[in-house]
Specification:
Number of strands: 5
Largest sheet: 3 strands, antiparallel
Oligomer: single chain
Radius of gyration: 29 Å
Distance between the termini: 74 Å
Number of domains: 4
Organism: Chiloscyllium punctatum
InterPro entries: Zinc_finger_SWIM
Biased composition (Pro residues): 210-230
Strand content: 5-15%
Shape: flat
Structural class: mainly alpha
Order of helices and strands: HHHHHHHHEEEHHHHHEE
Strand order of the largest sheet: 1-2-3
Biased composition (Polar residues): 317-327
Helix content: 40-55%
Protein name: SWIM-type domain-containing protein
Number of helices: 13
């Protein structure tokens, strides 16, 4: 029963146990094992999408990261402020890593199938699929039908189809596994199929809330371990390196939130004004990229058909750099 390849196989073995009429053994099995079968039966252990990480491990890792950033706050107000700052910093780091991944190039030795998955998936998911593509060449089958096959597996009996597989990788990650890819190659199907991948692994899914690569900060270099000081720091005190990193992350979070609002405002402006708005934002970006400074001057201009006093919302702006070059 432990190695049952499907729910049907488990039920068959379970009813065989009931047919033995060994009441004490049946009662013991119901009391100790049947209710928790999702934890020890192979076909049940991987029914959910776990993405090869457990909730407990994710919570433990997040707790350790928060503790490292919070230090020892002096009071509850400091704890709340530090917690919000730490959460914002962790989010900014995650967004930065995802954005940096977008800038990496496809390995030169990759084939057309790998290139197609590269365009579709995030870097982490692509690395997993690329390995499965390589291992698919070595998969053999005990039996193979038109749409189903049983690959040779040392751990347990598997049932593989052209669109799904019972292996742990496929059921946990919702990505194409080596068994599925080997069967598709055997049957002449295309190895690349976006439907084989969970949408949560797509670049489009991850880019919904991500800043463009031009706005990403480089990852901070690791801080070397410091020898123990003669006297412990005061309660709530942070080292200069930690404080500088936290300040940088806070500035990035503030700038990122503001850039999101700016993008929404620009996208919602009238069509005839969008090009000029985009030109202003491009000019500001180019000036900052050259190391220059930007000054903003409001212009009191009333659009045709409007008869209302000027407000910050209806006053267009001119953008000048420090050399007073008109943009």
């Amino acid at each position: 029963m432990c190695y049952a390849a499907s729910a049907e196989e488990y039920d068959l073995l379970y009813h065989q146990l009931l047919d033995t009429n060994a009441q004490r053994a049946i009662d013991y099995f119901h009391r100790q094992w049947h209710g928790s079968r999702g934890q020890w039966v192979e076909s049940f252990k991987h029914e959910g999408e776990t993405y090869l990480t457990s909730t407990v491990k994710r919570v433990e890792l997040l707790s350790q990261q928060l503790q490292a950033r919070l230090g020892k706050p002096a009071d509850s107000a400091g704890l709340a402020e530090g917690l919000l700052r730490a959460v914002g910093g962790l989010r900014a780091e995650s967004e930065g890593r995802d954005g940096q991944q977008q800038l990496r190039s496809l390995p030169a030795e990759s084939g057309p199938v790998a290139a197609a998955y590269w365009e579709l998936l995030t870097g982490y998911a692509f690395a997993r699929v690329r390995r499965e593509l390589e291992e698919a060449e070595w998969v053999s089958f005990l039996s193979a039908g038109p749409e189903r096959a049983r690959p040779a597996c040392r751990r347990r009996a598997l049932l593989t189809g052209t669109a799904g597989c019972q292996c742990a990788f496929r059921t946990a990650m919702k990505l194409p596994c080596r068994h599925l890819l080997a069967l598709r190659r055997l049957r002449g199907h295309e190895l690349y199929d976006p439907a084989l991948c969970s949408p949560r692994w797509s670049r489009r899914h991850c880019q919904r809330d991500q800043p463009p690569p031009a706005l990403l900060l480089p990852e901070p270099e690791p801080v070397p371990a410091q020898p123990p000081a003669a006297a412990p720091p005061l309660l709530g005190e942070q080292t200069p390196a930690v404080a500088a990193t936290a300040a940088q992350q806070e500035r990035y979070s503030q700038a990122y939130r503001l850039s999101q609002k700016l993008s929404l405002l620009a996208a919602g402006c009238p069509a005839e004004e969008f090009d000029s708005c985009l030109a202003v934002m491009t000019a500001v970006t180019n000036i900052w990229a050259r190391g220059g400074q930007v000054q903003v001057t409001e212009l009191n201009v009333t659009r045709p058909g409007e008869d209302r006093p000027p407000t910050p919302e209806n006053m267009p702006s001119e953008v000048n750099n420090t050399n007073q070059n008109r943009v």
